[in-house]
Fold this sequence. Notes:
- Helix content is about 70%, strand content about 0%.
- By secondary structure, it is mainly alpha-helical.
- It has a domain at about 1-105: Serine Threonine Protein Phosphatase 5, Tetratricopeptide repeat (Alpha Horseshoe), CATH 1.25.40.
Amino acid sequence: MSFMSTSVGSASTVSSRPPIPPEWFLRRASGYVELAELLTDGNAPAPRPARAMLRRALEELRCLSDVERLGPAASLLEGEARRAAGEWEAALAPFTRAVAGRTGRLEAWLGLGWCHKRLGDLPAAIDALERGLRAFPGQAILLYNLACYHSLAGDVAVAIERLTQAIALDPRFRDMTGAEHDFDPIRSDPRFVAATSVTV
Length: 200
């Protein structure tokens, strides 16, 4: 009797603890990803401290229930963590989940395109951002990245059109073209020069 009474008391004590809300794990994972990205250059492998933080982010996400872990917020964070770690193939599935449905995220469309590009699949990268543009029309960042990808693919006219649209929406993108290596294939084209020139 005494043993059974003690067991019931312990169970009662445990069950009275409030559950940890999923937002707590999401905030922690987001913090680790942000810190890791401060140490990461997108064109180079993530350094060891950044990789450690990205692993911690993924561990935080594994604490969520299956439903929460597969939702758009957690999926976006998983995709960003895997992208920053250079796991581009593994990042595609969570990014794809994050763009699904009415709650799709702009950052996830960009992540999909980014990973496809680094996997050497420019058509898939362009398709991802075109679909993202349909979901988020008039987003200059999508237009700018599409210009980059079309430039690499040799689609000069489309690259110039998308770049012109991006600059019209946000002139700051004009300043970014000078250091953007994706535009090297078309940099000497008169249409590119005209699109990036400042008229006074």
